[in-house]
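User: I'm preparing a small set of examples for a lab meeting where we compare how different chains pack in three dimensions. I only have the primary sequence for this one, and I'd like the structure in token form so I can line it up with the others. Please keep the answer compact; I'll paste it straight into my notes.
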Amino acid sequence: MLNDQEFKNFSQIIEQYAGIHMAEGKKALVEGRLRKRLVALNLETYNDYYKIVRNDNNKTERQLFIDLLTTNETWFFREENHFNFLKKILDDRNPQQPMNIWSAACSSGQEPYSIAMLMAEERELSRPWNILGTDISNKILTSAKKGVYLKKNIKGLSKTRVRRFMLNGVRSMSEYLAIVPELKKRIDFQPYNLTSSPLPSIKYDVIFCRNVLIYFDNDTKKKVIDRLIKALKTEGYLFTGHSESLHGVYDNLKVINPSIYQRI
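Assistant: Understood. Below is the structure token output for the 264-residue chain.
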């Protein structure tokens, strides 16, 4: 069983390396997710595992630790009003104008693939648009790059979009759907730490950073928002999760609604 000191130790590591603040209410989650590593490594206590993770020479295990504690549920076209607003942005722009969009906490890929589906519908695949999908978890990025999903877990996709943008698996993969190759190649998936990785070399028209800020304390949240603003074009848009307030955090942002901001 994970005791209070062990939970505190793990919380300090995840905050140090991922910027994530683990509230006391997350103790059961941490215990459950790390239990599998104790079993895999034949360890008796969580403290034994803590000693391995804190070892600076064992970066592979530390990445596995981060992967376990940062994987979150997502689905296609989550928070649909953001995609409706993105469609409005596209309607107001010349279709020949290049469009760069960053999905800054893309998890298992449903968010950037949803963006790509909308872009394909509104701009076609021949137009100049590109999507960057980033996440701190290498494991979840590997899954996102594959673009393969269990049919029973597909949420948020209309039958029309499934027919156009997904392929049915065959034989041993008959229970799965896969993103079509021409859509996959429009997304560049890269590992990225929102608190410390170098800023991308280009500026973005739209940045999605949703349902991750809630895990940061106020100081870290402000740091992340300041970095995202620098990566936005002037008059570019930042989308956050509906439950994530930026009150008292943002500078140089105009509030369009509580979860959509524009750089000014």
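A couple of notes for your slides: Strands lie at 99-103, 129-135, 148-150, 166-168, 176-179, 187-191, 204-208, 232-239, 253-257, 260-263. Residues 4-70 form a domain with the Chemotaxis Receptor Methyltransferase Cher; domain 1 fold (CATH 1.10.155.10).

User: Perfect, thanks.
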